[in-house]
Amino acid sequence: MTYRSLHPSDPSFVGGHRLLARLGEGGMGVVYLGRTESGALAAVKVIQAGYAHDEAFRARFRREANAARRVDSPWVVKVTGADPAAEQPWLATAFEPGPSLADAVGRHGPLPVRTVRLLGKMLARALAAVHDAGLVHRDVKPGNILLAADGPRLIDFGIARSLDDTAITSADLVVGTPGFLSPEQATAHGGRLGPASDVFSLGCVLAYAATGRPPFGGGAVDALLYRTVHDSPDLDGVDEEVEAVLLRCLAKDPADRPTAAELDAALVEDGSPGTAEWLPADVVRMVAERSAAMLALPDIEATLAEAPPRPAPSRRRFLAVASGGAAVLAAGGGAAAWAALRHSGGTGKKQATAPGWALGVQADLSGAGRAAGQAQEQGARLAVDEFNARRDKPFTLELKTSDDAGLADRAAAAAQRLVDDPDVLAVLGSSTDETTQAALPVYDTALLPLISMSAGQNLYQNIRSFVRGRPLHGTVAMKLAFHLEATSAASPVGVLLDRTAGDVSWQTVQMVNFIVRQYRDATHPRVVPAGTADFGPVLEDMRDAGIKAFVYAGPLEGAIRAAKGLAGFDGPKYAAEPALDPRFAAEESAAGWTVVAGAIGPGAAQVRSFAQAFRKRYGRPPGFWAAEGYDAANLLIRQLTATKGRRPARKALVAPLKKATYQGITRNFTFDPKLLQLSTPASFVHQVRDGAFHYLGPAPDKAPQPKGK
Fold first, then answer.
1. Which amino acids does the record list as binding ATP (predicted)?
2. 111 and 229 part of one domain
3. Which has more pLDDT, 12 or 410?
4. Catalytic site residues?
């Protein structure tokens, strides 16, 4: 078993479980290895806060957690606890150290016929128990099946769905793992999913176990989905009797498939599980190896001074190092402790000069996104220059920069450079989601206040020193949908999710799909795999479906391809925030496209004075995100001046920053201390005209009135 170390931002305790390591991470949250006070091990899934603050999600999570507890089968990993009402909902299951079916087949090849039959019987009984509890698993795949000496275990209810759920947030979106999902999943008919869908997926799993390959092949996701819906499965090499059973499971029509109980009866095999004899010898050795790894579980630090708080779970680990009656608090190891001693003069060496006052900017200053990063830095520098020009200034302020080139693997080092500079008291940055996420643990360990104006992904949890000065991507997408509904009656709306942009695209499409359907309008959602260079087939499909409007969620390069591919389409066309770039506006085919983003337009009336000062300082008009950089720097400057000339410790600025209220030129800054984000988010509408973006104004804050449909 491979364990990954906890991040500095990870909690120490969740629901009475002492967290030992990370087991995995996905779109819904993080799975930890935990230990209860009694010593029992558990896999603890902690849900992302983006879902936690959705009451509809909480209600569904509560129903599913309750249903999952009722699943009674030795072949389903047991749910041992859950708290849907926690600040971040969590679900704990018994921990099984065995390898996954995917690992076993990938390492040792196809399984013997007898093993496949026994595997099918046990998993059929597992699904029968799941279905009897009122659930549909929806992601039965080799990676979600663990092998133990006494039989398999079906795991991961991460995307399970109650049979009576309305599925409003996932209707018409592909949910599951391509290659192991049913035709009704492949065609995104989420509302039609029932137990028969799981049986189809189990048929795919057993075909994989018997042959070492998925029955509908591999390759691009679109091709996989097409073959799942239209082609016959590849069962070459499967035992004749097993093949006949699998063909029934893999029927395109759900009504033609056996139930889980019927599948159990159809897979005839002498003997029963209960000993390792059900597995071939090489896989038994693999199970033994993984079980032996249990002896090397990560230890709980002997110097840990923290006890699990009651009733609320701990959010951080602290190491108290006592020396001469004083204590140095370090939350990240020797380097952080050394830096804290050095900054405080605790090494006993006299510093050559008194520390100065400085703000830091971490941004992409030289990479592909340097236009936005440089704009933020220039906006912040203008704010610092204006402050230093004041006659009544209580101190002189510097601006120090650290370039991460927009690369996540350089972000932590860029953050450390600012952390190691004793002059830097607070930081603006970084300019992308990926670099901000990578840098956050460094800033949090040092308790160096950080405000981000352009990173809007909801991945920053249990971070004490961070606030987000812009709306989440999901909030921006909601306002995009509000604007679409307020200005157009076009339906259906084509919605294209480009997986190249990861969770940002998914969040955008989910929100647009949900909002549009609330107005009884139809959507026609489609997905393209990451790295897709030719949008032609999927755009042609959308046009053939009669779409009247279009929304693209993906990176800048994909937005340009979508604009070219939809040349001549005269319906409303929207792109998500990454398209807010002069390179998109410069494309002739982008004319008329609308982009809703967290950045205000440089031509907005409320930033006119700033734009004039910027032009005077730099000899050109400001770009997108410059005004946001100016606002962030002024907010931090105000926090520094509130100390009345007494140089504050970094950590002393954290709490006041989270409580700050500040009227900037781009927005009103009031932060929710629990969510680490704006209480008063604002998004802005931009449209491409004559090769440039024209600012249309703020996006609607509220849903428009129904259109009388």
1. 45
2. yes
3. 410
4. 139
CA-nearest of 622, 605, 650, 257 to 442 is: 650
Residue type, 327: A
Q: Using alpha carbons, list the distances in angstroms from residue 26 to 23, 48, 51, 233, 650.
A: 11, 10, 13, 29, 33
31 in a structural domain = yes
The strands making up 573-575's β-sheet, listed across from edge to edge, are 523-528, 493-498, 549-553, 573-575, 594-597, 684-689, 692-698
User: Per the annotation, does 658 bind a ligand?
Assistant: no
Total Cβ atoms within 10 A of residue 659: 10
Its domain, for residue 210, covers 101-292
Dihedral pair phi/psi, residue 200, rounded to 5°: -60, -45
pLDDT class of 50 with cuts at 50, 70, 90:
low
Instruction: Please say if the pLDDT value at position 364 is more than 90.
Output: yes
Q: Can you read off the two tokens belonging to residue 418? A: 């600012």
pLDDT digits (tens, 9 = 90+) for 195-209: 999 999 999 999 999
Closest CA to 466 of 439, 434, 440: 440
Note the residue count of the chain.
709
Distant-in-sequence, close-in-space partners of 708: CB < 8 Å, separation ≥ 6 = none
> Distance (Å, rounded) from C-alpha 552 to C-alpha 512?
10
Token output for 640: 């520094």
Instruction: Give me the phi and psi of 574, to 5 degrees please.
Output: -120, 150
Contact 287, 151 (CB under 8 A): no
Amino acid at position 97, single letter = P
Same domain, 467 and 518: no
The one-letter amino acid code at 356 reads: G
Structural domain includes residue 86: yes
What is the average pLDDT value for the chain, to the nearest integer? 83
CA distance 644 to 605: 33
